[in-house]
Amino acid sequence: MAHILDPAQLFSVAGTVAVVTGGGTGIGLMMAAALENNGATVYIVGRRLPVLEKAAKERSRYGRMFALQGDVTSRESLLGVVEVIRERHGYINLLVNNAGVAHGIMQKYEHQDIRSLQNELWNAASPRDFGMSFEANVTGVYYSTVAFLELLHNGNVRRAIAELHPVTSQVITVSSVAAFRRDDRPYSIPYTLSKVASTHMGKMFANILKDWKIRSNIIAPGIYPSEMTNGVIPDSHVARDVPLQRAGRLEDIAGLILFLASKAGGYVDGTVHITDGGRLSMFSSTY
Ligand SMILES: NC(=O)c1ccc[n+]([C@@H]2O[C@H](COP(=O)([O-])OP(=O)(O)OC[C@H]3O[C@@H](n4cnc5c(N)ncnc54)[C@H](OP(=O)(O)O)[C@@H]3O)[C@@H](O)[C@H]2O)c1
Question: How many domains does the chain have?
Answer without folding.
Answer: 1
